[in-house]
Write a structure and sequence with these properties.
The complex is a heterodimer of chains A (344) and B (386).
Chain A lengths: L6 H17 L2 H6 L7 H9 L18 H13 L6 H14 L2 H11 L5 E3 L8 E5 L7 E6 L2 E6 L4 E3 L9 E4 L9 E5 L1 H39 L1 E2 L2 E2 L4 H30 L4 H25 L12 H13 L4 H14 L4
Parallel strand pairs in A: 1-3
Antiparallel strand pairs in A: 2-6, 3-4, 4-7, 5-6, 8-9
Helix pairs in contact in A: 1-4, 4-7, 4-8, 5-6, 5-7, 7-8, 7-9, 7-10, 8-9, 9-10, 9-11
Chain B lengths: L6 H17 L2 H10 L5 H10 L17 H14 L4 H16 L2 H12 L5 E4 L15 E5 L2 E9 L9 E7 L10 E7 L5 E7 L5 E13 L3 E2 L5 H12 L6 H14 L12 H29 L5 H26 L17 H12 L6 H12 L7
Parallel strand pairs in B: 1-4
Antiparallel strand pairs in B: 2-3, 3-7, 4-5, 5-8, 6-7
The chains are: A alpha+beta (344), B alpha+beta (386).
Chain lengths: 344, 386
């Protein structure tokens, strides 16, 4: 076991920590609200190769591991990146996995930066893809309908929705007819399996992002309770607060370890990848909620003010994972994966 | 980054599993259940035969030189299997202290026989009036020539009825700050003046209340300096928080997963997404417990003492077990309260047993509140309460 990042991973972490520190400051995050998209940040991310990183060399990428992507996602979460990074990477990996001419051509356009391609986490209902992550700013959406993997243009038919996390989510209306005017990329059990793997990727990477978010939210709370005095002492000396933060710190460490293990397992222990990705997501969603809630609450009235950064974390901690669904949905997915492996 | 424990650890784990399949017989399990005593001499001697009482110690000290990754595998497997290791655990914890702080004569007298499985040593820290505030111990030891005279009471002296010695924290100087007047001794239990009274606990485990009335202890049985007992305690409390903590939860979940995948007439419970969600939440927590404990082992391997990491591992796993046990009784419905041993108990009565057992784990080795203090002050750098 070695929990230290390798030298290359250290470089990767440092590089993206520096990029986000410059391109995703509190001011920039606020300026991107309520639409939730910072084109300059996204431009820098694409320039540094966040999409090429996500797919293998045979698909025109660099073939970084999911763990490497997870380390970048942690920085994305720490700095509340206003860009659909995780869904764009999951979509790129899905297109690479799907193969076929249509998928290859779309992947090439995504990698060149010509089109922003995102992933719908849920099947269409009543001719609409509801609240597609990144849907408000994407050019194309990849989605599964039954056992058909499809892609559709997102421009012109999208309705962004104001939301808790200032996320660039939008409803994407499909046209009439079978498939809703969308292009079929592939179909059958392989298409459904490829989509399920894309969900695993999204869940594992979102777990990394939420772990990063939770870690920073905790730091903000810890810094505040050391500075703020009440009754003549720093409020961090009160056990009622200290114990709440100790529990949050334990959950944050657990979340970080589990999300890294889940991303690591994608390549190194594929038999557990689905279980771990879903478990990591559920746990990270709750850790992020716990850390951001406690940190905000321990700010007292200030936490309720828009001026303090902690509210930015508190809102996203709930909104980011809600795009998939409640933690229990992920926990059920983890249990189903365990039981179908015959464990237990 | 690599989450594998490594080839050596995996190979050792396989050996341990094969050993447990053989040594942890139904008779041993039944005896634990019937008596509440988590020590079994036959099992203890089987561990001795393998050299597995202290396999993590260097070979020259009587160990096998196994690394922390092998040791965490051993600890995980013993715990998951419910092996009776309380006696082994306390004996080795104390032997380890003697190995680090004892005289050469003490090492010959206690460490070697402990490793040969000839003696059992139990812990005598907690008293009726002091638990988490361990330095508040009031049991007195007064010097009388080459001997000390001990008077007082100890609580939760588990396995005292099986043991040869209690490793006891005593007050030798009542006139200085409480941490500065403590001394530790190995007090022979089979002598006049020692009274052992059984105490039964929520999960059926037997522990003891022990009384010491003018018990004479030779100065050669003193471990560490006179009034230097706090240094000894700091070391032993770190040992107590290392190792696996999630094994009981893993065993509980396995029992619940067997229940959930079996059709007892009303269909297969696992077909219900609500059932799956509860199993999955426990699985996620158990993975976190495992990772936090393995991180502590990794920190040790890197040559540091896992203080905050150990507290996090112990806190998280014991609180998770407590939560899960209650949740699984709810999940099982009215049947959930049927106890282990009753033929109609679902999941072998695992939920009822865990619901009782869990409340011990949130207390021994430092309560959850003590662990939170450690995390807040040493981990997060928060100021101490005034």
């Amino acid at each position: 076991m070695d929990l230290n990042p390798t030298d290359e991973q250290h470089q990767l972490i440092d590089a993206y920590a520096a990029l986000y520190a410059k391109e995703s400051t509190g001011e920039r995050v606020r300026a991107a609200e309520p639409g939730g998209f910072d084109p300059a940040l996204w431009g820098r991310l694409v320039e540094t190769g966040v999409l090429e990183m996500a797919v293998g060399e045979s698909s025109g990428g660099w073939g970084a591991s999911l763990l490497d992507l997870g380390l970048v996602a942690e920085q994305h979460g720490r700095h509340l990146g206003s860009a659909p990074l995780v869904e764009a990477q999951a979509a790129a990996r899905l297109l690479a996995r799907a193969g076929g001419d249509g998928a290859r051509a779309l992947l090439a356009r995504a990698l060149s930066g010509e089109e922003l391609v995102t992933l719908a986490l849920h099947a269409p209902r009543g001719g609409t893809l509801r609240l597609v992550p990144g849907g408000a700013v994407a050019d194309r959406v990849v989605f599964l309908d039954g056992d058909r993997l499809l892609q559709t243009a997102a421009r012109g038919s999208v309705t962004p929705a104001a939301n808790l996390g200032a996320l660039p989510v939008a409803d994407v209306a499909l046209g009439g007819g079978p498939g809703g005017g969308a292009e079929e990329l592939c179909s059958g059990p392989e298409a459904a399996a490829a989509f399920e793997s894309a969900l695993d990727d999204w869940l594992a990477l979102m777990a990394g992002a939420l772990s990063g978010l939770a870690g920073r939210a905790l730091e903000i709370g810890v810094e505040y309770v050391k500075e703020r005095h009440a009754f003549g002492v720093p409020i961090g000396s009160f056990q009622a607060l200290a114990h709440g933060l100790a529990d949050a710190a334990t959950a944050v460490d657990g979340s970080l370890l589990l999300s890294r293990e889940a991303a690591w397992a994608a390549a190194e222990e594929p038999g557990r990848a689905r279980e771990l990705a879903a478990a990591a997501f559920g746990f990270a969603a709750e850790a992020a909620r716990q850390a951001s809630y406690r940190s905000l609450h321990y700010h007292g009235g200030y936490g309720f003010m828009m001026e303090y950064d902690i509210q930015l974390y508190y809102r996203r901690a709930k909104a980011w994972p809600a795009q998939f669904g409640e933690p229990d949905l992920a926990y059920a997915r983890a249990a189903a994966a365990r039981l179908s492996r015959g464990e237990g | 980054m690599d989450f594998r424990l490594g080839e050596r650890s995996d190979a050792f784990r396989r050996e341990v599993r094969a050993f447990l399949d053989e040594a942890l017989t139904k008779e041993v399990r039944d005896q634990i259940h019937a008596t509440g005593v988590h020590h079994n001499w036959e099992f203890h001697r089987a561990l001795v035969e393998r050299g597995w009482l202290a396999p993590g110690w260097p070979v020259e000290d009587g160990g096998q030189g196994r690394d922390p990754m092998e040791m965490i595998a051993l600890s995980e497997e013993l715990q998951k299997a419910g092996a009776p290791t309380y006696g082994v655990g306390t004996t080795l914890m104390v032997a380890n202290v003697v190995r680090h702080l004892g005289t050469e004569e003490q090492k010959r007298r206690f460490v070697a026989p402990a490793l040969r499985g000839e003696i059992i040593i139990v812990l005598g820290f907690t008293e009726p009036e002091s638990g988490s505030d361990v330095a508040a111990a009031q049991t007195r030891a007064v010097r009388d020539g080459d001997e000390w005279v001990v008077n007082g009471q100890k609580m939760f002296t588990t396995n005292a009825q099986e043991a040869d010695y209690a490793f006891m924290l005593t007050r030798t100087n009542p006139d200085v700050a409480k941490h500065k007047g403590l001394t530790t001794f190995l007090v022979p239990l089979r002598q006049e003046g020692v009274e052992i009274r059984p105490v039964f606990t929520l999960s059926g485990e037997r522990t003891n209340l022990t009384f010491y009335n003018d018990v004479r202890v030779d100065d050669s049985l003193r471990i560490g300096e006179v009034d230097g007992g706090w240094d000894v305690m700091t070391l032993i409390l770190t040992f107590e928080r290392s190792g696996a903590h999630g094994g009981w939860s893993i065993a509980l979940l396995e029992a619940m997963e067997r229940w959930a995948t079996t059709d007892a007439g009303d269909g297969v419970p696992a077909d219900d997404p609500g059932v799956l969600a509860r199993l999955g939440r426990a699985a996620a927590e158990n993975e976190v417990s495992t990772l936090l404990a393995r991180r502590s082992a990794w920190v040790q391997q890197s040559g540091r003492l896992p203080g905050v990491e150990g507290s996090m591992a112990k806190l998280f796993a014991s609180e998770a077990l407590t939560r899960q046990a209650g949740d699984f009784i709810d999940l099982l419905g009215p049947d959930g309260i049927v106890s282990q041993g009753d033929p109609t108990a679902p999941a072998g009565g695992a939920a009822d047993y865990a619901f009782r057992f869990a409340l011990g784990t949130t207390t021994y080795g430092g309560t959850s509140e003590v662990q939170r203090n450690v995390i807040a002050q040493r981990g997060l750098g928060l100021p101490r309460p005034r």
